[in-house]
Amino acid sequence: MRKLACLLLLVPVLFVSVQAQKVEKEVEKEFPASNPKATLPDKQPEKGPGGSDYAHKKVEVIERGEGGKKYWLYTPAEPAPEHAPVVAFIHGYGAFTPEGYAEWLHHICKRGSIVIYPQYQEHRLEPPANYAPNSAHAINDAIEYLKEDKKRVQPLTDKFAITGHSAGGATTANLAADWEALKIPRPRAAMPVQPGRAFSYESKVQANNGLIPHSDYSQIPEDCLLLSVYGDSDLTVGAYCARKYFADASKVKPENKNLVEFRSCDYCATPLIAGHYTPAAPEGTADAWDWYGYWKLFDGLTDAAFHGKHREYALGDTPQQRFMGRYSDGRPVCELLVYKGDAKIDPDAEYLPVFDRSGKRVRKTEEKKDDANERRETPRETPRRKEDNKEEKKKDEEEF
After folding, report:
1. Does residue 177 fall inside a structural domain?
2. Overall domain count for the chain
3. 384: helix, coil or strand?
4. How would you label 68-86 residue by residue, b for 16+ Cβ within 10 Å and e otherwise?
5. Which end of the chain is more exposed for a tag (fewer CB within 10 A), N or C?
6. Nearest 5°: phi and psi at 18?
7. Cα–Cα separations (whole angstroms), residue 324 to 4, 100, 156, 293, 297
8. What percent of the chain has pLDDT over 90?
């Protein structure tokens, strides 16, 4: 799989669900420990969340606004619906234009949603306190623009969802918590992906030296469907913010929220490493991380929130939620690790990556690593492009 070079819960990983443990034992009996000849999943499912059964053939895109209040507006076309749900997609630090997430943006839109992509940063020195207000301005302006002309696709503001990656993941959580003060629609679903507020995977750095301010996450609405997502080898932001949003969203009903860990898998010759850049999807680079992972989860979450279906693909620690596709020899790719809404999570727990920046496994998934070889990763722009993970270790001099 092409890895991204674009843009743990160690409470304890022994707390793997009973279902996941059963699946892993069955897999160990049926398949060898590794198979260098096996290949990664290379086809998008035809149907269901993450799949290619699109309701619309094309996407229309316009740009509006200037500076930190600029945004891109995506609407479904061929056929153009009379009205559609609204999704705000909040990018990672420095991803001022949408190219780094092009495949995901088009996927969401072709499934039938209006997508708003706020720039929110005029430049890399934009004060982090402006991220949420600038994003909110873009969201509200886009909605008003569509409403001004009834020939345009009309926004269903009672069906509003937010997702975002990295700094955009942190901003997603802030928007969901502060929706009333920011005067944006009430979020029906929110999915912060690999959220972070500092350039370190150490929990103490994220907690004490973060640049993006924390909101009061107990204000995320109780009926909001919430997925907080991180990877087991994220050397850029770790897991602190993902854990905190999950733990602090106390008003959200337990059945409406999960904490999800993407797990690395080195079964075949090309290892899947759940690093910071896997959610990005520039044109032509979508892969199993997307189809069976990020896209599937967000599709299921919004389908459940907007249409009352496919909840099992997003919530509940179900087989459908955990499934990440199969290798060419039939072995399942390492499943997602899901923590249900009533799990007791300590955001400050130490985060120990499974793979280091060179692509070397430094601990087993179910064990603690004795030493963290690299405590901090140099800030870089998010995202760039999916490719071999070797790119990740060559970009230390670049900005996040």
Report:
1. yes
2. 1
3. coil
4. bbbbbbbbbbeeebeebbb
5. C
6. -60, -40
7. 17, 22, 31, 6, 11
8. 81
pLDDT in tens, 174-219: 999 999 999 999 999 999 999 999 999 999 999 999 999 999 999 9
The tens digit of pLDDT for each residue in 77-109 reads 999 999 999 999 999 999 999 999 999 999 999
Please answer whether residues 356 and 369 qualify as being in contact, where contact means their C-beta atoms are separated by less than 8 angstroms: no
Q: For the segment 66-79, what is each residue's pLDDT rounded down to a tens digit?
A: 999 999 999 999 99
Rounded-to-integer distance, Cα 301 and Cα 163, Å? 11
Q: What is the mean pLDDT of residues 317-345?
A: 97
Report pLDDT digits (tens) over 299-323: 999 999 999 999 999 999 999 999 9
Whose tokens are 């920011």? That residue is 182
85: CB partners within 8 A, 6+ apart: 112, 113, 114, 155, 156, 159, 160, 161, 302, 306
* Residue 107, domain extent: 3-41+56-394
Give per-residue pLDDT as tens, 232-245.
999 999 999 999 99
Whole-number CA gyration radius for the chain:
19
CATH code where residue 241 lies: 3.40.50.1820
Helices (H), 249-379: 288, 295-307, 319-322
Mean pLDDT for the stretch of residues 160-185:
98
In a domain, 301, yes or no: yes
Q: For residues 305 and 135, what is the distance between their CA atoms, to the nearest angstrom?
A: 22
Q: Does 51 fall in a domain?
A: no
Q: Report residue 299 CA to chain centroid gap.
A: 12
Cα distances (Å, whole numbers) of residue 270 to 45, 260, 277, 283, 330? 21, 23, 16, 21, 16
Q: Do residues 162 and 172 make contact, with C-beta atoms less than 8 angstroms apart?
A: yes
Domain-embedded: residue 400: no
Contacts (Cβ under 8 Å, ≥6 apart) of 60:
74, 75, 76, 77, 80
